[in-house]
Amino acid sequence: MKFLFLSIGKNHEAYVKEGVETFTKRIGNYYPVQWQIMAPPKNAGQLSETALKKKEGEQILNLLDKDDYLVLLDERGKALSSVTLASFIEARANESAKQVVFLIGGAFGVDDAVFKRAQFTWSLSNLVFPHQLVRLILAEQVYRACTIIRNEKYHHS
Hints:
Elements: E1 2-8, H1 14-27, E2 33-38, H2 49-63, E3 69-79, H3 82-94, E4 99-104, H4 112-117, E5 120-123, H5 131-149
Helix pairs in contact: 1-5, 3-5
């Protein structure tokens, strides 16, 4: 199984880049992992919110393979503890998922077609975070889950 962290927006900003790279490298000790940052569509500023989400949704859906297990990060999703996230990842591995895609959508969320395609919608918090911080939190939490699965000392419950 491998992980793809997919995000719409700018490349990692300097204030999160080092942390994202550190945790991504650590995850690589457990599972192959990569980031794909999708640029917003050209003329994004001229599109309505609905049209922008539709265009971004088409880009996202075109990137996914039919076998990808899509996890959408969204504030309306289900909250998980770190231990529950570890169980969730372990379950995907036991199901022989080839790739788990963690998607951070655009500034206005994602199109309904992407919601329907997602097998799971995960909320990191009831709070809303900047996309850059979500990337860091995602990488750290997936790393933490990997250490929980292996019963390593990083996580203290």
